[in-house]
Structures are given as structure tokens and as C-alpha cells.
Amino acid sequence: MKMGFRWYGEGNDTVTLDHVRQIPGVETIVWSLHHKQAGEVWEQAEIDAEVARITGLSAAARAQGVTRTFDAEVVESVNVHESIKLGRTVLGMSRDEAIANYITTIERLGRAGVKVVCYNFMPVFDWLRTDLWHPLPDGSTALYYEKAVVDKMSPESLIADMEANTHGLTLPGWEPERLASFHELNAAYVGVTHDDMYANYQYFLEAVIPTCEEYDVKLGVHPDDPPFDVFGWPRVVSSKEGLARVLDLHPSPHHGLTLCLGSFSANPEHDAVDAVRTFMDRIHFSHVRNIKHFASGDFTEVAHRASEGSVDTTGIMKAYAEANYQGYIRPDHGRHLWDENTTNKPRPGYGLYDRALGIQYLLGAWDAFRYQQG
Ligand code: DNO
Ligand code: MN
């Protein structure tokens, strides 16, 4: 297993590579070119510059005698253009054009030594929460999902809120400059079924997987978050059955999962440990984090330790350790601690401290269970 840490890039993240360097056990920086929109081709020079930044050391660090470096083998994410999910031209791009650009990006990432590319196949939105700074009993804050708020919300009302900045809520991928494209997308999804989505997904895989095999880049789909339909849009990577159906769309081992156990577990019926054991040989990358369910249907994100919430993070690490899992793992969203709630606000969920603590918990469990294996 290789432990990773998601990093948003120089000047785009409150966390620096030098901070991450001091977290024991992190080998891989999980990165992306965050200024690229879905459907855009990534330039080789930009890829190579980012990989060099991650795998190298600054002059200042070298002068201090620092030697520890990272690999840049995991990209999260190369986003899939909506035309691919819809199977038709939308936002001025045809799906074949978007697929051709995706293939070019995969080739270039493969040349740069990238081994795994994470993506999701959710219509319109990435993860959805109703409060990004929800207070927890210990004085920290975390991402929170309030069911009653989402049940009352329509996509139009959510976008209107974001446009007017009513709640200070900016969802990932919905920075103000993109809000205008929302109305076209919302209309495009009317009448699109789950079966349509699976068919469009298969078309995408058949086109891109040969390139993934040639360049030895594994694709790992991230489960829907939360793992059920929202606003009537069809989500197809939600349940265990959905994940199995997605994997069956293409037999190549280069088509697999970024199994995010926090997202998957947001449906209280889901069994995270069972999912790890069931899909082990197709898990290329895994996000291990914890959430806590409430009877209301709400959930909050909590610290990574199993006893803090509803997800059996220890059982998950036991399953990985028993299989001697060879893929990548990272902690996922953390709480915001200490100065992260005042002077040093990170991207919601992506502060330094709670993810560093989470890594130590996950590695502790991994080491103990590996030790038991002899
Ligand atoms: C939430 C995060 C996601 C993830 C994307 C992958 O659990 O891990 O935002 O990065 O869905 O495309
Ligand atoms: Mn995740």
C-alpha cells in the first residue's frame, strides 16, 4: 500500500509540500491541474512541470539538507465532460471531441509516469453538502449534509443561492464563472435514465481503455457522493450493485475503482468492509474516511478513527492489510482544526491537521494488521 495526500498545487492550497513532507508515511502526492475544465486537453509541459515540482525539492529545502521527496503517481481528477455522460453535444462540445481530449491527456499523463487517474461519473455536481463549516462538539468544524435542506432544495434554488452567495456556499467545480452553464446542463438531463448513463459510460470506456492499457494508466471511478440520486439526476456509481455493474461494463483491469468509503457509507445501509473485500482486485485507489449518521438522515464528517463515527475504518484497514493491498490510499476530507477555523482557512475538507492525524490512525491500523499477518 502506498499512502497519499491530496494537494491542490502551489499557491492554490494552504498546505505546502514542505508541510506534507513532515507527515510520516506519505509517499504519493495526489494532484491535478485544477485550472483545467472538464473536456480540456492537459498540456505536456504543464504536466511535466507539476510532476517535477512534486518529485523535486526547492532550493531552500535542499539548502536545509532536506532529502525526502514524493512520487506523483496519482491524479485526482481528470474530470469527465458532461457530453460524455449525456451521450450528446452539450456546452459546445461533442462527446467524441471530449473523449479524444481525454485520451490525449491520459497518454501525456502516462508519459509522465502517472499510474492511476481518479474521476467521477456524477451528473452536474461533485460532492454535495449543506454546510461546509459545521460546528462539532469539540470546537472544530466539518462538512455536513442536512437531509431536510436538500429535500427542500431544487437545483435552481441551489444555483440561485450560489449566484447570490446567500449562504457563502461554493460547491466544488461550481466557482462563480461556471454558474451560467448550469441552466443548459439542467435542461440536458431531463429524461436521461440510469440505463442511458450506463450505456454512455460503456461507450466512454470502450474508447479510452485501450489507451490506458497501452500507457499503463489505471482509471479509478470515485463513488457518487452522496450515493443516491439528487435532484432527480441519474447517478450510477452509488450502491454495491451499481459499482458491480460499472465494473462489468469493461473487463480490463485498467478499469477499476477509487473506492471512497466515506462517500459509499453515506447510505447507512452500505457495508464498507464488505465493499473492500468484494472489489479488492479492482481497487486501484481508496479514500478512507469516517462520517457519522443521524436518525434524521443527516450526516456529518468526523475524525478518521472508527469509534468517532459510523464507518468501520479499522475493519477497512484490516481488509486491506489481510489482502496485502498494493494500491494507493489517502485520507479524505478532514475536520478543520485550530487556526484552520480562523486565520488559516483551507479548502473545505482539505486542511492539514486532521488529514495528518487521520493518516497516522490509518497507518497504525495497517501496521498492526500487517504485523499480525507475520
Ligand atoms: C470526495 C472527494 C471527491 C473526489 C472527486 C473525484 O469524497 O474525494 O471530491 O475528489 O469526486 O472525481
Ligand atoms: Mn473521496
Automatic annotation (TrEMBL):
Molecular function per GO: mannonate dehydratase activity
Cofactor(s) required for function per UniProt: Fe(2+); Mn(2+)
Superkingdom classification of source: Bacteria
Enzyme Commission numbers on file: 4.2.1.8
Family statement drawn from the similarity comment of this UniProt entry: Belongs to the mannonate dehydratase family.
Nucleotidyltransferase among keywords: no
Organism: Promicromonospora iranensis
UniProt-recorded name of the protein: Mannonate dehydratase
UniProt keyword list: Iron, Lyase, Manganese
Pathway: Carbohydrate metabolism; pentose and glucuronate interconversion
PANTHER family: MANNONATE DEHYDRATASE
UniProt xrefs under Pfam families: UxuA (PF03786)
